[in-house]
Amino acid sequence: MRMFLISVAAAVSTLALSASVDAKTFTRKVVENNDKCYLVEYIPSTYIYNTKGKKVSGESRSWVGNIADGAVIIKRRNPAVYIQTRKLLEQDHYTLVSQGC
Fold first, then answer.
1. What pLDDT is stored for residue 81 in this prediction?
2. Cβ distance 63 to 77 under 8 Å?
3. Distances 55 to 21, 59, 78, 84, 85 between C-alpha atoms, Å
4. Per-residue confidence band for 41, with pLDDT thresholds at 50, 70 and 90
């Protein structure tokens, strides 16, 4: 009887140890193809503006007033006149911005 109890105790302890080993499970997070998260961002065209692009007329000076009426006569400066030009630096496009997932 004693041998039987020892063998039963050994069997029970073996089952208890194996049950505790089976209870420990681990999960591993696998990122397939090393995927990364990106946000799509629209970038509009970028221009550089030149306010002194094409010259229409140069600087001049003139007299303003009427001598006949006896009014005050002023010597006036007229600045040059230009047509503004612009140059395309970068066309509009989409870009992917890493979000870091």
1. 96
2. no
3. 88, 10, 14, 9, 11
4. very high
Most confident of 4-8, 13-17, 71-75: 71-75
Write the burial class of residue 82 (CB in 10 Å: 0-12 exposed, 13-18 middle, 19+ buried): middle
Residue type, 69: D
Q: What is the 3-state secondary structure (H, E, C) of the chain?
A: CHHHHHHHHHHHHHHHHHHHHHHCCCCCCCCHHHCCCEEEEEECCEEEEEEEEEEEECCEEEEECCCCCCCCCEEEEECCEEEEEEEEEECCEEEEEECCC
What tokens appear for 61 in the block? 């000076």
- Tell if the pTM clears 0.70, that is, is over it: no
